[in-house]
């Protein structure tokens, strides 16, 4: 019996690392992307074409046994009319559509009774100003396209709403209201993330909690063990699993959480695919998030999500200039216990994720020091 073929809609670094994990299992992979950035170069079956064209989608999907997406922004909804009925699309379109929109995402959490920050779906500037006046400080988020620090603004008084509204608010139509999401600013003690792998029948495995650190609204580092109390860790794992179940996701997904000074956890956002905070699973866990994503999407038994080292830390490698990427890895590779992953992107842009470094050690502090040293040593 031949192995199933996995289709991946998207050609960035997440697709690259998923394809490499599939290759370990001899699973054939077909990738469709609308842009060639270098990340999928060297992979055996990559199509670069208009991924919104139904004829392109239909031809590409032929021969796939299951299809997944690299990102919630991939046009999975356009596959509805072209995928054969026996080809699974995981996660499903309904979940992806809900997650793409910040307002709908929050509404699904509320329906499920999940702990989350106070928020208002503001359809007018007046509603947004009233919400900010009530919250005292707030984060204004555009409904779609908000990620990695893009598409949001922190305001601390109603007088600051005007410019943010002009930049972020969506124009409504007959089918849906416009506006933006106003979230109460959470004075959190820490940020955390929990990755879950889930099969279609609901069987799940939960990865250990990760402590995440952001700089300029972008993830800088992710560390495990997270160092929270047993009660907080349990609450984080429970909230993550409940979030994934509420959305009915299949595959790997990561729930980002706020941890308050009292140890309470609040659901921030969910990523319905492999996530930056779980890249350290490639080097520190028995089964990486990417292998478990392949297993879950193909409905295979899930792998052990546990740590195989005492501590690990991942630090992103961000570009600091514009121009062609010309990596120099010699100094980074000399750091003991550090693994360097570059994504193959041709062009560098200030702040662009070009790769990551994971370091393992007997202690979290040493792992962090090694990861930061190696990441700083990568020259692009």
Characterization of this structure:
The model has no long low-confidence stretch (mean pLDDT 94). Strands 10, 11, 12, 13, 14, 15, 16, 18 and 20 form a nine-stranded antiparallel sheet that branches. This protein has a five-stranded parallel sheet with strand order 3-2-1-4-5, sandwiched between helices. The radius of gyration is 21 Å and the shape is globular. The protein is α+β, with helices and mostly antiparallel strands and 380 residues long. The chain has helices spanning 13-24, 54-61, 93-100, 102-111, 125-135, 161-168, 230-247, 281-284, 289-297, 330-333, 364-377; strands at residues 6-9, 29-33, 46-48, 66-69, 88-89, 119-122, 138-141, 152-155, 180-184, 190-198, 204-206, 210-215, 218-224, 251-259, 265-271, 311-318, 323-324, 338-342, 347-348, 353-361. The protein has eleven helices and 20 strands.
Q: Termini, distance in Å?
A: 45 Å
Shape, principal axes of CA atoms: globular
Q: What fraction of the residues are assigned to beta strands by DSSP?
A: 25-35%
Helical coverage, percent range: 25-40%
Low-confidence stretches: none
Give the class from helix and strand content and strand pairing: alpha+beta
Instruction: Please state the CA-atom Rg, rounded to the nearest Å.
Output: 21 Å
- The number of helical segments is 11
Q: Main β-sheet: number of strands, strand sense, barrel status?
A: 9 strands, antiparallel
Mean pLDDT metric: 94
By DSSP, the count of extended strands is: 20
């Amino acid at each position: 019996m031949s192995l199933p073929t996995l289709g991946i809609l998207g050609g960035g670094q997440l697709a690259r690392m998923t394809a490499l994990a599939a290759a370990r299992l001899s699973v054939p992979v077909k990738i469709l992307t609308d842009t060639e950035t270098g990340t999928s170069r060297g992979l055996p079956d990559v199509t670069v074409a208009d991924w919104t064209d139904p004829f392109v989608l239909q031809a590409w999907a032929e021969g796939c046994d299951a299809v997944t997406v690299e990102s919630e922004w991939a046009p999975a909804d356009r596959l509805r009319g072209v995928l054969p009925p026996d080809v699974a699309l995981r996660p499903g379109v309904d979940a992806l559509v809900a997650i793409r929109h910040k307002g709908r995402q929050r509404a699904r959490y509320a329906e499920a009774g999940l702990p989350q920050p106070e928020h208002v779906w503001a359809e007018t500037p007046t509603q947004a100003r009233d919400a900010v006046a009530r919250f005292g400080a707030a984060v204004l988020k555009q409904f779609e396209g908000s990620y990695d620090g893009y598409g949001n603004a922190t305001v601390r008084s109603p007088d600051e709403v005007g410019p943010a509204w002009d930049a972020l608010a969506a124009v409504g139509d007959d089918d849906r209201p416009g506006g933006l999401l106003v979230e109460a600013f959470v004075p959190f003690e820490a940020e955390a993330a929990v990755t879950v792998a889930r099969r279609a029948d609901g069987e799940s495995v939960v990865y250990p909690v990760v402590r995440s650190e952001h700089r300029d609204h972008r993830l800088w580092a992710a560390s495990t063990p997270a160092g929270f109390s047993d009660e907080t860790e349990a609450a984080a794992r429970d909230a993550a699993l409940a979030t994934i179940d509420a959305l009915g996701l299949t595959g790997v997904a990561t729930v980002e959480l706020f941890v308050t000074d009292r140890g309470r956890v609040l659901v921030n956002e969910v990523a319905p695919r492999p996530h930056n905070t779980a890249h350290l699973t490639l080097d520190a866990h028995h089964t990486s998030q990417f292998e478990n994503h392949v297993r879950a999407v193909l409905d295979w038994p899930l792998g052990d999500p546990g740590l195989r080292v005492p501590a690990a830390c991942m630090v992103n490698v961000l570009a600091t200039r514009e121009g062609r990427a010309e990596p120099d890895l010699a100094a980074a590779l000399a750091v003991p216990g550090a693994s360097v992953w570059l994504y193959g992107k041709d062009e560098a842009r200030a702040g662009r994720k070009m790769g990551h470094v994971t370091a393992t050690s007997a202690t979290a502090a040493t792992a962090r020091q090694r990861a930061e040293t190696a990441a700083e040593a990568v020259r692009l």
